[in-house]
Design goal:
Blueprint lengths: L3 H59 L17 E2 L6 E2 L13 H4 L35 H4 L8 E5 L8 E4 L2 E6 L6 E2 L10 E6 L2 E6 L6 E3 L2 E3 L1 E4 L4 E4 L2 E7 L2
Parallel strand pairs: 5-6
Antiparallel strand pairs: 1-2, 3-4, 3-13, 5-7, 7-8, 8-11, 9-10, 9-12, 12-13
């Protein structure tokens, strides 16, 4: 059995590590929040500037009279108006410079000719033209795009061999380890069984359990079949050595 004092010390160290981790997360979130505020303020400033630029043509239109075909008294018919926005236009213009309305389509048909249908000239035989794609901005629910992330409760890091430095995350519940590809943690070691061991996290406790492996499991150089883990424990499966790190 492991010394209870050692277990208690390990849990205290893990709790201190968790508090340090949470403090770092809060500091990072605070910095990200301040950065978002700066970006939002810059965006609002740009929008206000664009809004003032967009108001310039509107101010010009307000100075014009409501009579869209020129002076009522002596210049009737001297200037035409846009049916879309009412702005004064020149008869030679094919498009309104203010609202983009097609003036050629709205122009009256010459005498003796029937007006064109509302939808434009009839299309003769031939392939149908594809519909124009809309360039409207659409709202997207960002929360719906975020994949559900599992809570990380710890890590194990390989300390030797070709995979030295490789780390694996541990999640609540069972984390299977072995040479087979269907394990949660796959280790390339010919001395490992296909399903060698399992690290389980439940009720705030970490446990290493041997899955009836051929070469056994070792914690701090002691062969075990079931052992509670604490932060910085050394684990050996086959010829692969791990360092265990607890987050809670």
């Amino acid at each position: 059995m492991r010394d209870p004092r050692e277990v208690i010390k390990g849990r205290i160290d893990a709790r201190i590590n968790r508090q340090i981790h949470e403090a770092k997360v809060k500091a990072r979130q605070k910095a990200e929040g301040q950065a978002r505020k700066v970006v939002a303020a810059a965006g609002d400033k740009a929008k206000k500037k664009q809004g003032r630029a967009d108001e310039a043509p509107a101010a010009k239109k307000k100075k014009m009279g409501w009579w869209k075909f020129g002076d009522k008294e002596g210049e009737a018919g001297a200037a035409s108006g846009c049916p879309g926005c009412g702005a004064e236009t020149d008869p030679s213009w094919k498009q309104c410079p203010y609202c983009g309305n097609d003036l050629a389509a709205d122009a009256p048909a010459p005498a003796g000719q029937p007006p064109l249908p509302q939808g434009g000239p009839a299309r003769g035989p031939g392939p149908e033209l594809p519909a124009m794609a809309s360039n409207r901005t659409m709202a997207v629910d960002i929360s719906a795009l975020k994949a559900t992330k599992k809570e990380v409760v710890g890590w194990i890091v390989i300390m030797n061999g070709n995979q030295k430095g490789t780390d694996y995350r541990l999640y609540p519940g069972k984390n299977t380890m072995g040479a087979a590809a269907d394990n949660d943690i796959v280790i390339t070691d010919e001395f490992l069984s296909s399903r060698h061991a399992m690290i389980r996290y439940e009720d705030g406790r970490y446990e290493l359990l041997d899955a009836e492996s051929t070469n056994g499991c070792f914690v701090n150089d002691k062969k075990v079949t079931k052992e509670e883990l604490i932060d910085n424990d050394s684990i050996r499966l086959g010829r692969t050595e791990f360092r265990f790190k607890a987050l809670y």
